[in-house]
Design brief:
Helix content: 25-40%
Radius of gyration: 23 Å
CATH class: Alpha Beta
Number of helices: 6
CATH architecture: 3-Layer(aba) Sandwich
Distance between the termini: 45 Å
CATH topology: Rossmann fold
Length: 202
């Protein structure tokens, strides 16, 4: 009986630990906006992050899910240009590249949250109490979570108009590649659900 209880607890723990830590917390779509199905549709993907290697990975992951319609901004916009905080360079790239849309991703905030988990006792009558109560009694404890909020926006180029916006929350990211993959998956899936991507990328 005790072994079965331990096994069940471990299975639940593994399911929670291995689950994705990123989720959509809110999204918005311009009324009437639909997926860009035209063969001329061309999307520039811009990740506004300080680390250039992370920027490249993020843009690559998003572009890979846009089924040939996306182009990474790092191939045309250097870090020095981004640091100048001028939209002229972006405007020129969009015009010269004949882009129809632009996706911009940026980290908007890091929110700290202190949680208290009360002590628990998994006990009961008979065998559950005799074999399990002592083993499963645990004291309460405090823990601090960090939520990384990333905002993704989709604009049309002509006219310059916000088409879609979504915010993701990633709790306590421990692996940059895993986190980037999760954000890319969650964002593109939400865009597909909202009708902005015609077919989910594979």
């Amino acid at each position: 009986m005790r072994k079965a209880l331990i096994l069940n607890v471990l299975i639940v723990f593994l399911i929670v630990a291995c689950g994705p830590s990123t989720k959509i917390v809110k999204s918005w779509k311009s009324p009437g906006a639909t997926a860009q199905t035209s063969p001329n549709s061309k999307i520039l993907v811009v990740a506004m992050v300080k680390d250039e290697s992370s920027r490249r990975v993020i843009e690559d992951e998003i572009v890979a899910r846009l089924k040939g319609k996306g182009v990474q901004s790092y191939t045309q916009i250097t870090p020095d240009i981004i640091k100048k905080e001028s939209t002229d360079a972006l405007d020129n790239v969009l015009k010269e590249g004949q882009y129809t849309d632009v996706i911009i991703m940026s980290l908007t905030s890091v929110e700290k949250e202190v949680n208290y988990t009360s002590g628990t006792t998994y006990g009961g009558y008979g065998g559950y109490y005799r074999y399990g109560a002592g083993f499963y009694s645990t004291p309460g404890y405090y823990s601090e979570d960090k939520n990384y909020m990333v905002e993704t926006t989709l604009y049309s180029v002509n006219p310059n108009k916000l088409i879609w916006a979504g915010t993701t929350s990633t709790v306590n990211p421990s692996n940059i590649q895993k986190t980037i993959n999760e954000i890319a998956n969650v964002v593109t899936e939400q865009m597909r659900k909202d009708g902005l991507i015609a077919t989910a990328a594979k």
